[in-house]
Amino acid sequence: MKVVVTGATGNAGTSVVHALAAEPTVTDVLGLARRTPDLKVRGVRWEAADIDPGGAALDRLFTGADALVHLAWKFQPTHDPVETWRTNVLGGIRVFEACARAGIHILVHASSVGAYSPGPSDGRPVDESWPTHGWPGAAYTREKAYLERYLDGYQLAHPDMRVVRMRPGFLFKATSASEQRRIVAGPLLPGRLLRPGLLPVLPSVTGLRFQALHTDDAADAYRRALVRPVRGPFNLVADPVLDTAAVARLLDARTVPLPAPAVRAALVAAWQLHLVPAAPGLLDAVLRLPLLDAGRAREELGWTPARTATEAVTAFLEGLRDDTGLSTPPLVGVVGDVTLSRRRRVRRS
Question: Which of 29, 25, 27 is nearest to 61 (CA)?
Fold first, then answer.
């Protein structure tokens, strides 16, 4: 099987290409990204390609492939939602239509828990039948939900193509920590202070709960979806459900309860001053996310996460503390505002 992976150099992409490289039925992997990485993975070829309208000739890149895993996504600039829409929605549609023209048989799309409508008031976990209309106040959730609607019609138009939609919770690993810090918190997140005992207090946002998953476990589910005759959506999460108190325990810190409106007001001010990259609407969306039931993935993919949600967050915190990264443009580690690649050049001089 020949597989193309878009967004192959990011958090999910680097784990997926490693998982596919180890799969005996996959004979060739083409990793696509806006910038080719200095990363060697046996059996993986790299090529620079932009999915934006007017970008690379995707038909040429997709010709001869049996399957495509679509992971490419632009999280910033949050102050310009038209730009993220252009890449994430219009670029995503461009990828889907190029798959059909190239005769690709399997499309695995990276959707998200963010595609789901607000969860039930009783907090019960939902399965894949829960509505996917997103939260309208956040660009990320609007874009994920729109692609879900597009794929509804796309599947009807291309019944011979096996379309799979992955809907994971929050994905963490050590080597993605620097990228996720830049995407969400910017320079205000003190990575060096995130050692047990050094951060005495952690703000606890009322009503905040989330589900996490180690990125390598998500990649294993993607691999299984490619090689098994499955279709449709799959929730991907690990136990337990986490909250601020659970993260505080990992840091040996106390929690100080803060009402969500106060946290949002502070985030609005920081975002407007360009001090943090995460838009306030994203907090609104996170507070409304449903909890997910991953029973279908366990039953039809034979998938069980090897790590707990706590272990995934622990790996992320360790990555923040140690400035961990990979030799790909999105995942390169940071020390302050200096990239690892720059630090290596300084050491050589």
Answer: 29
